[in-house]
């Protein structure tokens, strides 16, 4: 499989470059130096090495083509050939691939393709063995012994109405995306040492097996669930993990290519909704290989921006009032507590919040 391109990241290969623009990509390639080159052909398909979609012919000396009409959440593969005036066609160029994740209704809060290390967003864990570095267009999660190679966000993100997507170009001993409301930057294990945390990861099971796991820690008590059994693709293919955070739940899904596959829905405690650090990490990289992160994106919801639009239907009406009434009496320790209903941020949804809604929402 070739390099994956998505969002605004551009990846050079020997002969092609794909640049993102809405539902299209622009393929660029180096000019063939043979004197009798007649035209180039852009091949494309939805499987690596199988170019079954319509071809695009481009007359020499032009060296670019716009490919439009691409669907979101589908991975497309591209290669280019050159044909001379006698009809002789060259072999394929190096293959590249592209996938556009559909995030309609959301705006990017972070998009990091790791061309450089952005110290205004991330910090490398300060444990002594952490050798994590950005190189060759990826974040190499690396450590010099059994400690973690890890980075964490400088700021907390409320885990509600957000999407977090992480592309792992390579899975090593483990490839982790994690969240915790607390943080010790010098921890040798990253956020796994915190009293409360959530981690979703592709774990090293054996020399030929990996699987997807969910690890949750509540008040120091750890539970681990295997979400997906291992398979050969885990060893050779890039993999993306997508996390959809709603008011009280997190949906976990994954893809090697194409549409996402749902795995699990996890109830989210209020401590995460109030704000969590984000972690990328890998363990045992000396023995089992380091993990490479191609990119991470965090999207916040843009619809329903009126604070009184509690059901996010873009109108403030009696339905929002009824929804508020159903939650009156809940405090922040309740699993059904919703931060966006606690207008005075006192940890309770109560009569004060009802009075504020009735006075300020103007829906009546």
Detailed description of the structure:
With 364 residues, this protein is mainly β. The chain folds into three domains: 3-98, Immunoglobulins (Immunoglobulin-like, Sandwich), CATH 2.60.40; 106-301, Jelly Rolls; 318-360, Type 1 dockerin domain. Helix content is 9%, strand content 40%. The strands form four sheets. Strands 9, 11, 12, 14, 19, 20, 21 and 23 form an eight-stranded antiparallel beta sheet that branches. A seven-stranded antiparallel beta sheet has the order 10-13-22-15-16-17-18, with no helix packed on it. The chain has a five-stranded mixed beta sheet with strand order 1-8-7-4-5, with no helix packed on it. A hairpin with a 2-residue loop joins strand 11 (133-135) and strand 12 (138-141). The longest helix is centred in the last third of the chain and has 10 residues, at 318-327. The protein is globular.
| Distance from first to last alpha carbon | 57 Å
| H-E string | EEEEEEEEEEEEEEEEEEHEEEHEHEHH
CATH class of the largest domain: Mainly Beta
CATH names the topology of the largest domain as: Jelly Rolls
- Tell me what the CATH architecture of the largest domain is: Sandwich
Uncertain segments are: 1-21
Number of self-contained structural domains: 3
Reported for the largest beta sheet, the result is: 8 strands, antiparallel
Name the shape in a single word: globular
Report the portion of residues in β strands.
35-45%
Helical content stands at: under 10%
- Oligomer type: single chain
The helix count comes to 5
- Count of distinct strands: 23
What's the Cα radius of gyration? 24 Å
The secondary structure category is mainly beta
| Overall pLDDT confidence | 81
